[in-house]
Amino acid sequence: MDCDVAIIGGGPGGSTLGTYLKKHNRKLNVQIFEREVFPRDHVGESHLPLISTYLDEMGVWDRVEAANFPIKVGATYKWGNTKELWDFDFIQDGVLKEEPRPAKFEGQRRATAFQVDRAIYDKILLDYAKEMGCEVHEGVGVSKVHRNGDRVESFELSTGESVTARYYIDASGHIGMLRRAMDVPVEYPTGLQNIAVWEYWQNAEWAESIGIGGTRVQVMSVGYGWIWFIPLSPTRTSVGLVMPVDFYKESGKRPEELYLNALASEPLIAGLLKNATREDKLATTKDWSFLASRMYGENWFLVGESSGFADPILAAGLSITHAAAREAAFTILELDRGWFTADWLKEEYQKLQENRVRNHQRFAAYWYSANAQFSDLREHTAKIAAQNGLELSPEKAWQWLAQGGFIDDDHMVGTATLSLSAIKDLGTFLTPMEIRNPLGDNNVFKLNLAGAKKVQRAKYAKGGVERFVAYQRDGQTLPMGGVFEILVKTLEKYSTIDEILAELNRIAASRSHEPGFQTWFTSRVPSTFEAMIVSGWIEASLDPSRRTMQAPNETPVLHWHSDPSGA
Questions:
Q1: Are 111 and 105 spatial neighbours (Cβ–Cβ below 8 Å)?
Q2: Residue 413: DSSP 8-state
Q3: Predicted TM-score (pTM) of this structure
Q4: How far is residue 405's CA from residue 354's CA, in Å, rounded to a whole number?
Q5: Omega before residue 267 within 30° of 0, cis
Q6: Chain-centre distance of CA 162, in angstroms?
Q7: pLDDT tens digits along 317-367
Q8: Domains along the chain with CATH numbers
Q9: Burial class (CB in 10 A: 0-12, 13-18, 19+), 201
């Protein structure tokens, strides 16, 4: 069998990559080899809103919406420095207005996500990839990878057949079959080595019903780990326990015993499961944060969890996988066009994946270290903090997070898929952080590009790769596009707050004819401005003779939530 692209794995990584390839080049011969036969259960059911954008771009959002998965409005946590519950919501005040389903991908649905039954979700995506023209082989695994140096020569299938391709993709998940065959070293950077034990339940109650079909995921700390509670349908719920592997080994107890004890010990979860029944499909897996040292070779790419994994506490696994699959597909399409050098395209893919996973791993380390409710894991969380150079004193926590870069490679103002305002709010619920708003405390701002160099970075859009200019310094990146570029050009001419505001208002007025521009512009300027200050691209100071600007009021994304269990 000879093809253009051979993909190991038919999960979201493989099917997303295949779909994007066929969407933008129907002539490509794309083969997907999945060792199992769908549908099959799989852990990792909680989406972030970014995925919905990809599903819409692929053309499959309507099919996923028609499956009637619960709408994820946000999550409720028992985590941090208080045993009170608190909510993190994707939409303002966690209010989902009632609208019939299936709905269109517009309005409030652009800000929400899904909680998916992977048996159904993965089959929808794989079937769609097949309809798009990929040749899908279910029940056919790759038994061996034949290599010559850093080049893959062929795949040997479980059927005995041989497959040759121009490009080979490892979308096999944490198994990392191609990664292992190519002897790619792996690092474990954060000390987060957990195991997950989970089961599916029928007829559990939802903690909340919001609008039509909306709810929140429940994340409840217990002394030695945490529980997830994720409704997947009106009747089916995924409930899991995550704990350090060392704690599990030292307990001397079987996974099922630890799992059932944890559920019984948490009043809210126990109440929701009071009238529910288990499907008797108890499963375990290791959730070890790791990162591959490289994610491409001469004719191969690693996609999703084959290249790295960040702890599930941030629910980012599927987002990282979908994004990597999209970017790998666009890279391959661009390699075929030949407009950019192969080395540059591959290096840009590597940088983006590596930085994305590292940011999530770093932030997960903060979440664990700052959770005062891990009464049995004090030594463990202290070790995680020490390994990451993380000081949790109020004045140091924010400074440590800022060092990770609040302008990330996805051009997002924040880190680990959390906005800057969301990270600030976390200071209330995790380790209290001293956060001063530099826009309210200062009134003179000077652009600081000293020591920075201009580089060409990659942007993935419209079925390919575009170049954009960015400044880089000390591991920080300042993209020259959108609000970033507007602020840079403004600060090249003006430095006082009055001059800067006048120029920004002039720009907004000049583009008032563009639909949605003013809302987009005014919502992004404050956080982008602040991120550029925190990241060192702008020097802020106070001139007592001049007025200061009142810091913008940001709508809180986290808020208190009463515990219905009364615990």
A1: no
A2: B
A3: 0.95
A4: 14
A5: no
A6: 35
A7: 999 999 999 999 999 999 999 999 999 999 999 999 999 999 999 999 999
A8: 2-347 (3.50.50.60), 394-554 (no CATH)
A9: buried
